[in-house]
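cron nightly-structures :: item 1 of 1
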Amino acid sequence: MLVFLLGGEGHLTYSNVDWQVRDAVLADMIRAPWPFAYGTGATPLILRAPLGMYLFPALAGKLYGFEAAHLFLWVQNGLFGGSLLALGSLLFPTERGRRSALIVLLCFSGMDILGFSLVRPGRILPFETSIDGWAGIQFSSTLTQAFWVPQHALCGWAGGLLFALWRRGLVPFAAYCVIMPLLLLWSPLGVMGTAPFIFLAFGHMLKTGRLTWRDVALPCAAIIFVLPILLYLGAGAGEVGARIAFPPAVVYFAFEMLEAIPLILLTFMLGGARLYGLACFIAITLMLLASPFVMIGENVDFVMRASIPALLLLTLITAEILETAPSTNWRFSLIMILAIGSITPAREIYRALIYRASPAPHCDIAHAWQVSFSKFGTHTYFAPRDSLPRSLRPTSPTIIPPLSTPCYERSWAMPRSQLLGTATDRLF
């Protein structure tokens, strides 16, 4: 609950700029009768996005208002995240191990500050943004995921954690395969990032002769159940686009050397491959090395979101190694990498504390998008109504007229005190 509170949920602390769009989505879902569409063009546009996180908060907002919706969102995500922490604690049999794992989880990040110093020598960016994306491609720290994209974070954490629990015999294979499709409406990219580990688990079950008819039938039933979600998310998806991208070789090499390769090598040398199997360790490595070459849409969302399950598994491996490995130079090096990486989540917390709670939106998502994301297309959030299959297409949706009022009554990032803001600018 504290993590998501610091991330701006409940509108009690500062919300990062991604919440400009997220708040507007929730506000539109509250004020408009369902189903609704946007009439800003010749063809009505539907809101086609992973809306799973918003559904119940929007219903709460229809009954009790915008503030109640955000409080409900905070409680919902806090309970989800708390449940994952409780399940994850099963992997660590001792109280000390659980505490150590929690610290590693909250501090886990690549060495962003070093990369940032390379591309921005002599000055760190103002605190209203993060430093994870210093290379133009990004693996997000645990707290960055929680603060900026909780829906993707929770889905990806569930995918990585359930694999670890299955590998230890604490979760049935069928349950793992059933739960993940149900999270498609939260984060399709998070489910994509989990797919290699599901296939890995399936291959292991098949190879060892442990696969039963339930292990096949129940996941198939889940896929049939979420078929309308797949059709909804696929509406107009051709406009989003998926392609192979090739970042500059120097940038890619520097990125991987500061974000992934040292952690992978050190955990391997300290016995990390034996914790969840060599095949799992190879899958983690391939996912972190290959995902920067895939782009979906106009931004690097795929590498940021699909990498979350692999990063979570690497976090669990790191936590277990630090608890069990003997004191060696390799172990000390791993601790130093984590210490350097912890600067990234420390900045996230600092920003949450020095800035005021962000203002509520007074415009719809189309106008909120223009505030900070106008250089990107809106295909990830909108699709023509006619692109929906007939079985899902609303025949007479409520048309939301454009709102001409300013989106916010004040600037988004406003320091709690002028003195604090001035001191921050001078230092950084």
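cron nightly-structures :: done
The first strand starts at residue 36 and ends at 38.
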